[in-house]
Amino acid sequence: MAYITLNRTKLKHNYDFLNAKFEQNDIEWGVVSKLLCGNKTFTEELIKLGTREIHDSRIGNLKVVKSINPDVQTVYIKPPAKKKHIEDCQIC
């Protein structure tokens, strides 16, 4: 079974590094939290870093973000469209 561990020191270091780079170039950015699977403890840590925007492909995970801090902007990542087979094409 796969699992992830949270290293707060490394997370903060990486977040601060990226944030500084983006701010230098006047780029607004957000964190993609898909890997966290809506884990409340890990999501709280992201928010504590000062994250203002969190992106995820599961609405339930975005609800966890809002339950922790309703002021954090959430962005739904739409899954890719299913590939159409040529047989399904009406124009062909």
In terms of per-residue confidence, which ranges show pLDDT below 50 for 5 or more consecutive residues? Answer: none
Rg over CA atoms = 17 Å
By helix and strand content, what is the structural category? alpha/beta
Strand order of the largest sheet: 1-2-3
Tell me, rounded to a whole number, the average pLDDT: 90
Query: How does the overall form come out from the CA principal axes?
Result: globular
Question: Which descriptors apply to this entry?
Answer:
single chain, 92 residues
Blueprint (SSEs and pairs):
Blueprint: H1 8-24, E1 31-32, H2 40-48, E2 53-56, H3 59-68, E3 73-76
Parallel strand pairs: 1-2, 2-3
Structure description:
There is one protein chain. It is built from three helices and three strands. The protein has helices at about 10-25, 40-50, 60-70, and strands at about 30, 55, 75. A three-stranded parallel sheet has the order 1-2-3, covered by helices on one side. The longest helix has 17 residues, at about 10-25. The protein is globular, with a radius of gyration of 17 Å. The mean pLDDT is about 90.
